[in-house]
Design a protein that fits this description.
By secondary structure, this protein is an alpha/beta fold. It has 5 helices and 5 strands, in the order E-H-E-H-E-H-E-H-E-H.
Length: about 140
């Protein structure tokens, strides 16, 4: 499963998320981006299609910047991990039309369960013959 993550890799919440992803035993390591501009550039490439996007902004300013370019993420399932539980923040989080919303003060076991479920249905990014798709070889 190809997972693209926008998060601050130095953040403690990201460490908990990384542990949850490791627990879910996703076959391919997640691709982590900390720069919004570079993250968005990936989605402007024609053959870039992650199976899942996890958006984990550290504050409302990052969340709003990502929401402004949310059209880039419409072709992938999205999990949004919000930095706070205020109604305005949750409202912005829903603009992504996410498959799931979590909060950065959680242990992310629910996110891990979703990843395990998706991995089971997608055979962790393998095709019917058990091989990686051509664009991942």
């Amino acid at each position: 499963m190809h997972i693209a993550i926008y998060a601050d890799a130095q953040n403690q919440s990201f460490n908990r998320l990384h542990q949850a992803i490791t627990w879910a035993a996703v076959a391919r390591p997640a691709e982590v981006h900390s720069d919004i501009r570079l993250f968005c550039e990936c989605f402007r490439v024609l053959d870039y299609h992650p199976d899942l996007i996890i958006i984990m902004p550290t504050g409302s300013q990052e969340l709003e910047a990502l929401a402004a370019v949310r059209e880039l993420f419409t072709n992938s399932r999205t999990i949004v991990i919000l930095p706070e539980r205020e109604a305005s923040t949750i409202s912005i989080g829903h603009l992504f039309r996410p498959s799931f919303i979590a909060f950065d003060d959680e242990d992310f076991q629910d996110v891990a369960a979703i990843l395990k479920h998706l991995c089971g249905h997608r055979q962790c990014g393998m095709d019917r013959k058990g091989e990686l798709p051509a664009y991942e070889r």
